Amino acid sequence: MHIAVLPGDGIGPEVTAQAVKALRALAANGPQFEFTQALVGDAAYDAGGDPLPEETARLAERADAVLFGAAGTYDSDLRPAEARGGHALLRLRKRMDLFANYRPVFAFPELLGASTLKREALEGVDLVVLRELTGDIYFGQPRGISVVDGERVGINTMRYTESEVRRVAHAGFRAARLRRRKLCSVDKANVLETSQLWRAVVTEVAADYPDVELTHQYVDAAAMLLVRKPRDFDVIVTGNIFGDILSDAAAMLTGSIGMLPSASLNAEGRGLYEPVHGSAPDIAGKDIANPLASILSAAMMLRLSLGQGGMADRMETAVRHVLAEGLRTADIMEDGATLVGTEAMGDAVARELSRLATA
Ligand SMILES: NC(=O)c1ccc[n+]([C@@H]2O[C@H](COP(=O)([O-])OP(=O)(O)OC[C@H]3O[C@@H](n4cnc5c(N)ncnc54)[C@H](O)[C@@H]3O)[C@@H](O)[C@H]2O)c1
Ligand SMILES: CC(C)[C@H](C(=O)O)[C@@H](O)C(=O)O
Ligand SMILES: [Mg+2]
């Protein structure tokens, strides 16, 4: 099984190395993985002037799955999109047509005390944000910064086609069928035409899934409800920009953005797996980043792209055992726990995987 490893920038290489370590620990007792690493993001831009070199894109397309770290560091200047690290990720998603981005939000019982929210509200939280990933204001034309009437104007275009909405709606209903059969579609149909179309198409698709309960929420209310009654959600299907924002907010139900994995799939089931967080330049190079989002993304990769559900289960069990032992990176630290760094957390998961294999 050939895995393309694109560590990228900031903490990307630090956390990805721990996921690769965990995969290697698993492979000691099972099928072998072949890893090929390539540059992406600012690292690639600095090396060769393109944040997504053709060689990297081809490797990603050829591999059985892609393990991605993070791309981009603080983009505070007005560099054009083509020169921005984060844009490499958008190009890769578009090129591979990775339209369905699953972001599971699972509150590990071991971590309920690490959240800033009340334990009672979080117990049993288990939802998925399904974010459409190749349309919306991220890709709509026209876009750019130009001078109009003597002042600069920034323009982006929110755009969705019926077929784009339809395919992600089907993915949402199918995901709900495998879970608690509840789908909440999130839009801003009181204001936006893209959302009016979104709501109409999702409602049409619902006719094929009479066994799934469909509800609709406006995105502002959904943000509030995610914090107030997170247990009410099962699968949330939403557009690219709303999903980006809601999933970072939902991350805090788990204790930290450092806990949230993701899978981005195309119609053929090919996938890119990455933590939801970014390159975190503020903590890069300090061995303090939480690698569990990356490790849990590798578990999703095993299950969804590599046909290794058993290995995925073991990886997730190893994470739970390590948390139950009381090991914590700084972002999920709580009283009485043992503070460990990025490397040590990765070592602990790998050690636990070796133990589970021989138990
Ligand atoms: N998928 C990606 O490649 C991706 C995702 C998000 C942001 N980015 C890029 O990353 C850069 C930084 O963005 P940002 O600061 O808004 O978001 P970020 O997710 O990188 O960081 C936000 C905050 O969360 C913390 N954090 C993030 N991951 C963590 C982890 N694993 N462990 C502990 N703490 C963690 C950071 O220290 C920071 O305080 C930007 O260039 C952005 O475009 C890339
Ligand atoms: C880096 C950025 C382009 C990206 C996005 O907005 O999609 C990130 O925030 C994410 O959530 O994957
Ligand atoms: Mg984001």
Automatic annotation (TrEMBL):
Cofactor: Mn(2+); Mg(2+)
InterPro entries in UniProt: IsoCit/isopropylmalate_DH_CS, IsoPropMal-DH-like_dom, Isopropylmalate_DH
Function: Catalyzes the oxidation of 3-carboxy-2-hydroxy-4-methylpentanoate (3-isopropylmalate) to 3-carboxy-4-methyl-2-oxopentanoate. The product decarboxylates to 4-methyl-2 oxopentanoate.
Cofactor details (free text): Binds 1 Mg(2+) or Mn(2+) ion per subunit.
Compartments where found: Cytoplasm
Name of this chain's protein: 3-isopropylmalate dehydrogenase
A GO cellular component annotation in the UniProt record: cytosol
EC numbers for this chain: 1.1.1.85
Subunit structure: Homodimer.
Enzyme class: oxidoreductase
Domain Isopropylmalate dehydrogenase-like: start-end pairs: 2-349
NCBIfam families found in the cross-reference section: leuB
Example GO molecular function: 3-isopropylmalate dehydrogenase activity
List of residues binding Mg(2+): D220, D244, D248
Chief place where the protein resides: cytoplasm
Catalytic activity, reaction form: (2R,3S)-3-isopropylmalate + NAD(+) = 4-methyl-2-oxopentanoate + CO2 + NADH
Protein family according to the UniProt entry: Belongs to the isocitrate and isopropylmalate dehydrogenases family. LeuB type 1 subfamily.
Keywords: Amino-acid biosynthesis, Branched-chain amino acid biosynthesis, Cytoplasm, Leucine biosynthesis, Magnesium, Manganese, Metal-binding, NAD, Oxidoreductase
Swiss-Prot/TrEMBL site (Important for catalysis) positions: Y138, K188
Record carries keyword Methyltransferase: no
Residues reported to bind substrate: R93, R103, R131, D220
PROSITE patterns: IDH_IMDH
Organism: Falsiroseomonas stagni DSM 19981
GO biological process terms on file: L-leucine biosynthetic process
Pathway per the UniProt entry: Amino-acid biosynthesis; L-leucine biosynthesis; L-leucine from 3-methyl-2-oxobutanoate: step 3/4
